[in-house]
Amino acid sequence: MNFARPSSTRRHGFDMTPMIDVVFQLIIFFMYTAQFAQATRTPIDLPDQPGDEQRAHTVAEIVVDIRADGTYLAEREVIAFDALIRKVQVEIDRSSTPGDLSILVRAHQDCPMTFVNRLATRLVEMGVRRIILGTADQIGPG
Fold first, then answer.
1. Dihedral pair phi/psi, residue 103, rounded to 5°
2. Which has the least CB within 10 A, 13, 22, 69, 74?
3. Count of CB atoms within 10 A of residue 8's CB?
4. Residue 102 CA from chain centroid, whole number
5. How far apart (Å, rounded) are the C-alpha atoms in residues 80 and 74?
6. Cα–Cα nearest to 95, from 55, 124, 62
7. Which tens digits make up the pLDDT trace of 81-132?
8. What is the DSSP string of the chain?
9. 62-66 and 130-136 strand pairing
10. At residue 30, what are phi and psi to the nearest 5 degrees?
11. Which residues, including other chains, have CB under 8 Å from residue 87's CB and lie 6 or more apart?
12. What domains can you pick out in the chain, each with its CATH number?
């Protein structure tokens, strides 16, 4: 019996080079996509756009301005939210077709959107379907 090992042993191994290449490519991919995630969180200032001219056949029956601090104005007079809703309800009751009532909502450009959403949600609940939204850099004195 020969218990001696053969002098030429074959070495079987696993080549790690392709796996290291894949790991480096994954690292580069995740670093690259992390930069895009940071870019989407960066606040940007949008350019001022003139907007559309108001069409002659679209006449807002009620104009509501919202100041930067969330104060509501109707006909350039400061008005509480509940009083504004009552005023809209009076116009709905006065109108023969409530769906045709149009309301122009002009919000200050620095106004938090919660005030606009609150008003728009309430108007839709009341049956108003024609809400015209706009922004302004200045809202008149009240």
1. -125, 130
2. 13
3. 5
4. 23
5. 9
6. 62
7. 999 999 988 888 887 776 678 888 998 888 888 899 999 999 888 888 888 8
8. ---PPPSSPPPP----HHHHHHHHHHHHHHHHHHHHHHHHHS--PPPP---PPPPTT---SEEEEE-TT--EEETTEEE-HHHHHHHHHHHHHH-SSGGG-EEEEEEETTS-HHHHHHHHHHHHHHT--EEEEEEES-----
9. unpaired
10. -70, -35
11. 62, 74, 79
12. 62-136 (3.30.420.270)
57-60 contacts, C-beta under 8 A, 24 or more apart? 58/102, 58/132, 59/102, 60/102, 60/103, 60/104, 60/132
Task: Report the alpha-carbon angle 71-116-61, nearest 5.
Answer: 85
Task: Say which residues have a Cβ less than 8 Å from residue 23's Cβ, sequence separation at least 6.
Answer: none
Q: What is the mean pLDDT of residues 57-86?
A: 85
Q: Using a cut of 0.70, tell me whether the model's pTM lies above it.
A: no
Which residues, 6+ apart, have CB-to-CB distance to 1 below 8 Å?
none
